[in-house]
Amino acid sequence: AEAVCGLFHGEIDRATEARDRAALADGGTVACHEGCAQCCHNMPAVFAAEAVTIARWLEQPAQVAIRDRFLARYPAWYARVADLVERWATATEARDSGGAAEAAQEAWRRQVMCAFNDAGRCSIYPVRPSVCRQAHALDTPERCAPGSPERPRAFAFPPLDDYLEQIRPVIFAMHAALGGGRGGSRPVCVAVHQALLAPRGGAAEAPGRNDPCPCGSGKKHKRCHGA
Fold first, then answer.
1. Is pTM, for the whole model, over 0.85?
2. Which residues contact 7 (CB under 8 A, 6 or more apart)?
3. How far apart are the C-alpha atoms of 125 and 142, rounded to whole Å?
4. CA-CA-CA-CA torsion sign (127, 133, 135, 136)
């Protein structure tokens, strides 16, 4: 999973770089740049392979400090979006993509910063998920804020869209092979937190009633968010 995700991420990065060059050649101005964290107020989702890839990276000795900061921030982050995570889970279990999108939109409106964001920068940037690698806005990042009267503009780039469509079946297959369950994608912070707690090599299933609650409270799931 890590090797395949690495290949996919490399191709996506090359495609986004080509998209940026095309946008600039067309007279546009790419608003996305280092330090802009507007899109980090979203609740992006990943499938099991990317969650495991990020978790394994965080377990490397060089990343221990990043992992520990994420684990320390996670309970407060989860407390602010627990209802949205539950709505997301219900929607994805029912294959309701619209319901999942509405939960993500509400997280954006609440401006809840991703638990992986560290002082305005992505702490897992080398292994950030595909959805974050595609972040793209033209002209100004101010249009990415909830109060903006205009939505951010983007530059259409069919080669990237085509590639993402081509790799989708492989992502689904890896999700199933890693025991990702029927629920489909999950918010990246939740998925990685559970992958860090899972036995090495797999993704965590939904917690059992007597398992520790994934919110990090220390209580059993049945006495916390499973109540």
1. no
2. none
3. 22
4. positive
Does the pLDDT of residue 221 top 80, yes or no? no
Q: Tokens representing 89?
A: 């889970």
What is the rounded (10 degree) CA torsion for 165, 167, 172, 175? -140
Asked whether the predicted pLDDT for residue 52 surpasses 80, the reply is yes
Question: What pLDDT score does 152 carry?
Answer: 83
Nearest CA to 69 out of 219, 224, 189, 205 is that of 189
**Cα Rg of the chain, angstroms:** 18
d(CA 186, CA 180): 10
Contact 155, 26 (CB under 8 A): yes
Residue 202 has pLDDT above 60, yes or no: no
Are residues 138 and 23 in contact, defined by beta-carbon separation less than 8 angstroms? yes
